[in-house]
Design goal:
The protein has about 110 residues and is an alpha+beta fold. Helix content is about 45%, strand content about 25%.
Length: about 110
């Protein structure tokens, strides 16, 4: 598998500056994140197919980064256990996904 080394280094520098950890630890965490991405993508796709969802989905934070907000009271379509590589310990977390019909453009 090929990895985007430039993105890994950018991520390492970001972690180094943000968390104040050693650069070697930041680079280790960046590599863990890069290796976890394809695993997480497969888990999301499998959960999406199991829930029979065809629309675009994203997490609450993902929609917010795209300039949308999840409508208050919306229930997540499905949840998935994802690997959180940036912590450095390979811990998992539960991510909830919302559909495109459950969001609206964020008010300014």
């Amino acid at each position: 598998m090929k990895y985007n080394l430039s993105q890994i280094m950018k991520r390492a520098w970001k972690l180094f500056r943000k968390l104040g950890i050693s650069f070697s630890e930041a680079l280790h965490r960046a590599w863990l994140s890069a290796k976890a991405e394809p695993v997480n993508a497969r888990r999301i796709e499998a959960a999406k197919q199991a829930a029979s969802i065809a629309e675009a989905v994203n997490t609450w934070a993902g929609w917010k980064a795209l300039g949308y907000e999840v409508i208050h009271g919306s229930r997540a379509l499905f949840g998935v256990e994802l690997i959180y590589g940036s912590r450095g310990d390979g811990a998992c977390y539960k991510a909830s996904f919302f559909g495109a019909n459950q969001v609206r453009e964020a008010a300014a």
